[in-house]
Amino acid sequence: MLKQGLELKQSQKLSPLQIQTIKLIELPIQELEQRIRKELEENPVLDEDVPKDKDDDEAPREVSLSEYKEDDSIPSYRLRSDNYNSKDERPQYSTFSVKESFTQSLQEQLGYRNLTEHQYAVASFIIGSLDDDGYLRRSIDSIVDDLSFRANVETDEQEVLDMLKIVQEFDPAGVGARDLRECLLLQIRLCKKTPDVENAVKILKNHFNEFTNKHFQKIMTRMDITEDELKAAMAKILKLNPSPGGQIDDSYADQAQQIIPDFVLEYKDGELLLSMPRFSVPELRVNRKYADLLIDAANSSEREKKEAAAFVKKKLDSAKWFVEAIKQRHNTLSSTMQAIVDYQHDYFVDGDETHLKPMVLKDIAEKTGFDISTISRVVNSKYIETHFGIYSLKYFFSEGLENQEGEEVSTRELKKALQECVDNENKRKPLTDDELVEKMTEKGYKVARRTIAKYRDQLGIPKARLRKEL
User: Fold this and answer.
1) C-alpha–C-alpha distance, residues 102 and 251, integer Å
2) Highest mean pLDDT among 28-37, 44-53, 215-224, 258-267
């Protein structure tokens, strides 16, 4: 049986200002500057700030945004920095420079080879198929098929292999390898031929499984070499780079860019001083031409002028929301970062990791009154410059566990202690996870075996068997 009735529901709809603010909070400083530039280009009401001559009668005078009065004042919309005036030079900022693109470097080397247009297309496609670490993990068959269907280049397996060999001759050594073994062999072939290098080549070619599993006695027996000879050969192998693509950073879509800190924290006279020197809160001003249009329309009954004025008013509202959203972004970021600094005060004084307290997004949300989702957006892709280095804001967040005294310590402190245990172990007889639990207990940390295994994986520390050395 169907029933009819009325039901009252309350739903929350985000305002244009709230939506704008959420989007801007997520942006790191360099993307925010690009976003401001985009708004300037797309909103005809907005205008660039130009230094004004006090004697210039044509220079527009400022007026409040809420005023659309018919008087001598002409509102003007422009973006101007509050942090330095037009006569000051823009301050300098510390940055992380991103090196030349990995793909660009290989393509440049390819250009120096004497190849036909067809061969160049095949080799270039191979370069584009490499992973970020420099390996080619796609099958030759799939490359042949893709060249045919996607690039309209007919080829065969042999030609792809021939072009791959050319790519494998490029810098960095080992690039284009299809697995770790091939990567190491490509590099060691460039070393001067000595008995140690020849033994290293034999190990990689004939005993690679034994080498990766640290079965040293088997290698010595099968190759009929001494322990010292094995050590010397392994020393050559361990100097090779297992990730050749990592030498050139390609993390920014093949473009040379910079990571610019959003915050700067200084320690002066025993006090932590937080600032956002790169940030500028734009001052809202209106382009003179559109201001004149508004004033003219106010005194006119013509339909066209009224429609033009409505258009300008719409753009005016959009610009007001944009600038207000930027101001709210500034306040949100500033409050959040100050809360993090206050929470981790002891750490920020000297940069000692052991002073990092357990801290999760909820802790900062409670201190600031913002939602956890807002804190997450602030933390994402933001950096701070301190007197001991530049760090991602995510670095300061970690969960905690209790030590034997019942005090809560951060997981970062536990990981540091675990790393020290591994660094100081006897490499001929590495510590098992159970033995690491005992060592951590001796240091005063109450940690379960499964936790040790989890932290060991996160730190990239292999199992005891794989840490064994001669």
Assistant:
1) 9
2) 215-224
**Residue 126 is part of which domain span?**
99-171
pLDDT band at 450 (very low <50, low <70, confident <90, very high): confident
Q: Do residues 243 and 134 lie in contact, with contact meaning Cβ atoms separated by under 8 Å?
A: yes
To the nearest whole number, what is the mean pLDDT of the chain? 77
* pLDDT at residue 182, as a whole number: 92
Quote the tokens at residue 231.
Answer: 């050590």
In this predicted model, which residue has the larger pLDDT, 470 or 60?
470
269: tokens are: 């006279």
Mutual angle of helices 29-42 and 303-343, in 10-degree steps = 170
Pairing of the two strands 383-386 and 263-268? parallel
Q: E strand or H helix at 203, and its extent?
A: helix 195-206
Q: Is 207 helix (H, G, I), strand (E, B) or coil?
A: coil
Phi-psi region of 154 (alpha: psi -120 to 50; beta: other; left: phi over 0): beta
State both tokens at 67. 């005023």
210 in a domain, yes or no? yes
| pLDDT average, residue stretch 371-398 | 88
| Side chain identity, residue 23 | K
Tell me how crowded residue 183 is: count the other CB atoms within 10 A of its CB. Answer: 25
How many structural domains comprise the chain?
4
Give a yes or no: residue 278 inside a domain: yes
The pTM of this model reads 0.50
pLDDT at 438 over 60: yes
